[in-house]
Amino acid sequence: MATAEQLKTLIKSHFGNDPDRFSTIALQIAAHEARQGHGDVANEIRIIIDHAKHKPVRITFHRELEDLVLETEPNHRLGELVLSDSMKNRIQRILKEYKQQHKLKKHGLVHRRKLLLTGPPGTGKTMTASIIAKQLSLPFYTILMDKLVTKYMGETSAKLRQIFDLISKQQGVYLFDEFDAIGAERGLDNDVGEMRRVLNAFLQFIEQDKSDSLIIAATNNLTLLDQALFRRFDDVLHYELPTLKESAVLIDNRLGTFKGQFSSEKIAMHATKLSHGEIAQACDDAIKETILSDKQKVTREHLLAMLKDRHNAYGKRRI
Ligand SMILES: Nc1ncnc2c1ncn2[C@@H]1O[C@H](COP(=O)(O)OP(=O)(O)O)[C@@H](O)[C@H]1O
Ligand SMILES: [Mg+2]
């Protein structure tokens, strides 16, 4: 049994909110029990402490950050992602390096944790970030960049500092989605100056960050950004519109059991210039129509019509 002195210190550290002290005393009690020949009790105590230590600490957000940082439950699976093999390999490498970071650390190497994703809208950048979070069992946070700029004009750098404080305190995957919002044109000249300063501050924060979190910046608009930006990131992934083959796989995946008797490869020829997101949407629309007209399968004609709708939705992008 623990000594009276140990029990008192344990209770004090609990009410004094001193978790480190609490664990130390608890470990002392375990050692004491082991010496008394109570090996099982000692082990149980150690296991309890071990579990408690590995439980992720939930930090409640600064009230000022509540409207800028959104936590979402990642709901995509890695298998859903349709990308070239080389892109998939690069994503796998990021996951592998993260999971085995301690091995790299022993040799003075750091895992990839600052990523830049670029490419047209709807090609899977946001999806990739959420999948990375899911695969690594980390919470997934999105920073609402447009809000940061529009609502906090003039105090954006201070807000960014708070966000990076959060990144170092709360381990997670942080997505700065469409982060070029802070570099984008804002009509008025003096605003442009402010934007550039903010963009530079952002890049400096990224460069200085030494946290355990993964930082992912995604942009649709690379030309706006300074090329020198690349060196601040450990990896840059370029997303592209799907190839014919990738479009066909996407159609197969998306239609699943609703797919009728037609060749996805052939129909994919009518989906050129559409993004993954647009093709997925056309498939979902075709499924909806099929269900609503009490049919079982999506026909070729049906899907073609929906793909055409997608093309028309973006007038300039006709085949
Ligand atoms: N590479 C992809 N593979 C499979 N589905 C995709 C892919 N890219 C996009 N999608 C579909 O389109 C939707 C929007 O994609 P998103 O990741 O938000 O695009 P981005 O962030 O590049 O604009 C996703 O939720 C998914 O349903
Ligand atoms: Mg996106």
Layout of strands and helices, then pairs:
Elements (H helix, E strand, L loop, with lengths): L3 H12 L3 H17 L3 H16 L14 E4 L12 H15 L1 H6 L7 E5 L6 H11 L4 E4 L1 H7 L4 H14 L3 E4 L12 H20 L5 E6 L15 E4 L5 H12 L8 H5 L7 H17 L7 H14 L6
Parallel strand pairs: 2-5, 2-6, 3-4, 4-5
Antiparallel strand pairs: 1-3
Magnesium ion (MG) binds next to α6.
How would you sum up this structure, described in words?
This protein is 52% helix and 8% strand. It is of the alpha/beta class. The protein folds into 3 domains: 4-54, no CATH class; 63-238, 3-Layer(aba) Sandwich (Rossmann fold), CATH 3.40.50; 244-317, Helicase, Ruva Protein, domain 3, CATH 1.10.8. The chain is globular. The termini are far apart. The model has no long low-confidence stretch (mean pLDDT 86).
Compact summary:
With 319 residues, the chain is of the alpha/beta class.
How much helix, percentage-wise, in residues?
40-55%
Count of helical stretches: 13
Spatial arrangement of strands, main beta sheet: 1-3-4-5-2-6
Q: What is the level-2 CATH architecture name of the largest domain? A: 3-Layer(aba) Sandwich
In total, the number of strands is: 6
Which hetero compounds are present in the coordinates? adenosine-5'-diphosphate, magnesium ion
Which regions have little confidence, pLDDT < 50, spanning 5+ residues? none
Structural class: alpha/beta
The sequence of SSEs as H and E is HHHEHHEHEHHEHEEHHHH
Q: What is the CATH homology-level superfamily of the largest domain?
A: P-loop containing nucleotide triphosphate hydrolases
- Give the count of structural domains: 3
Distance from first to last alpha carbon: 80 Å
For the CA atoms, what is the radius of gyration? 26 Å
Q: What is the CATH class of the largest domain?
A: Alpha Beta
